[in-house]
């Protein structure tokens, strides 16, 4: 038997499995999905769970229930590429013949003291549940600071505004505007929405350290103290710890360099998908899914002894939510704002929940 292990049942891993299961599997192939959770957590919706705007069960998707896929629960601690072994925090190691690494990403704290301890996370379902509890337990009119004005920070601030009208919500960003990687028109629209809805935006904030209840902003005159009942960290990501430990070539974001077939060049039996892979675009669920489909095509071509033919991955755009009724995004090359992108985003979510995306 040849064991194909897919590490991570997220957008990338499940796209591979879904596509492979569409056809026959060779008789000597065993497909194993490894995850630390018993279902997929729809990471693109973690901001809404943290804000208390959706329930936990609404953002879970069951893993495939197919006798051809064996599901192995476990928290991967280390990947030994030479011995072809996976080590878990509990239990026996698991060997593989072929591997896909699709473990996603975690927060990056940029060596800022106290950031990991006092900056609450929305990067895993477990950490999002803790953040949800803290945000929803804050006393009336308490102060929330969200460090990082990218997509997830903006979506969280807007959803929390709708979920808790009493809170004081502030986004602290290092740059001059929120959503700095999006067209300026979108940043202006989003800033206007925040102004109308009483969310404070502070730009050029240079967070130097965090303590319990205080964020320090390094300024030309010293350190400003910004008081905070709960701080959420959305100021950077990097691949998960098991991938950080891998001694293979990586890009400046810590993502593993791959060849055109999505394999680690020195370990062609190992593919890397999604947020762990060095792709020519920002990490996204859409990129992970599209790449996953290509990896499935490569694996199937290998089974048939053919050379895989892959096109260029084309992404459709990015969409963000501003609460339940407004949104923003880039569709093709067009910046779109208001109700329409919000409706499209809900449709995309529906498709991911029903494995149609
Ligand atoms: C708040 C927020 C909003 C976002 N919004 C969007 C959006 O609107 N559009 C978009 O395209 N992208 C969005 N993203 C990014 C998107 O969620 C990720 O790029 C996408 O989930 C990456 O897919 P993946 O398959 O690489 O990893 P994931 O989907 O994160 O899956 C990784 C899997 O690995 C498992 N895992 C991790 N570590 C271990 C371990 N040690 N042991 C065992 N299992 C493990 C996890 O349980 C998980 O099931 C958003 C992200 C966040 C945080």
From TrEMBL:
Segments forming a coiled coil: none
Residues covered by the FAD/NAD(P)-binding domain: 3-292
Entry annotated with the keyword NAD: no
Keyword Manganese: no
Cofactor list: FAD
Keywords on record: FAD, Flavoprotein, Oxidoreductase
Family classification: Belongs to the NADH dehydrogenase family.
Protein's name according to its UniProt entry: NAD(P)/FAD-dependent oxidoreductase
UniProt source species: Paenibacillus apiarius
């Amino acid at each position: 038997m040849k064991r194909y292990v897919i590490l991570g049942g997220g957008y990338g891993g499940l796209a591979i499995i879904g596509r492979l299961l569409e056809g026959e599997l060779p008789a000597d192939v065993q497909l194993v999905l490894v995850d630390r959770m018993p279902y997929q957590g729809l990471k693109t919706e973690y901001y809404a769970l943290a804000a208390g705007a959706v329930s936990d069960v609404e953002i879970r998707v069951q893993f495939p229930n197919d006798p051809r896929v064996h599901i192995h629960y476990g928290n991967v601690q280390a990947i030994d590429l030479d011995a072809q072994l996976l080590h878990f925090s509990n239990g026996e190691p698991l060997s593989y013949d072929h591997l896909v690494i699709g473990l996603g990403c975690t927060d990056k704290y940029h060596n800022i003291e106290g950031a990991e301890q006092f900056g609450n996370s929305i990067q895993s379902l477990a950490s999002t549940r803790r953040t949800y509890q803290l945000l929803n337990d804050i006393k009336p009119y308490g102060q929330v600071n969200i460090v990082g004005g990218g997509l997830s920070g903006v979506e969280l601030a807007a959803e929390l505004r709708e979920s808790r009208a009493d809170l004081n919500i502030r986004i602290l960003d290092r740059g001059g505007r929120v959503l700095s990687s999006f067209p300026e028109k979108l940043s202006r629209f989003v800033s206007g929405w925040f102004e109308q809805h009483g969310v404070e935006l502070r730009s050029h904030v240079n967070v130097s350290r965090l303590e319990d209840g205080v964020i320090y902003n390094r300024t030309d005159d010293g350190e400003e103290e910004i008081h905070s009942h709960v701080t959420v960290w959305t100021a950077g990501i990097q691949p998960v710890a098991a991938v950080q430990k891998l001694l293979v070539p990586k890009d400046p974001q810590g993502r593993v360099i791959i060849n055109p077939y999505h394999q680690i060049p020195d370990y062609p039996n190992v593919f890397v998908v999604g947020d762990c892979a060095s792709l020519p675009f920002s990490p996204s669920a859409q990129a992970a899914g599209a790449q996953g489909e290509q990896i499935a095509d490569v694996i199937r071509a290998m089974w048939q002894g053919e050379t895989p033919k892959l096109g260029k991955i084309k992404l459709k755009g990015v969409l963000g939510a501003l609460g339940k009724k407004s949104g923003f995004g880039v569709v093709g090359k067009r910046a779109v704002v208001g109700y329409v992108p919000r409706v499209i985003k809900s449709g995309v979510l529906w498709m991911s929940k029903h494995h149609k995306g």
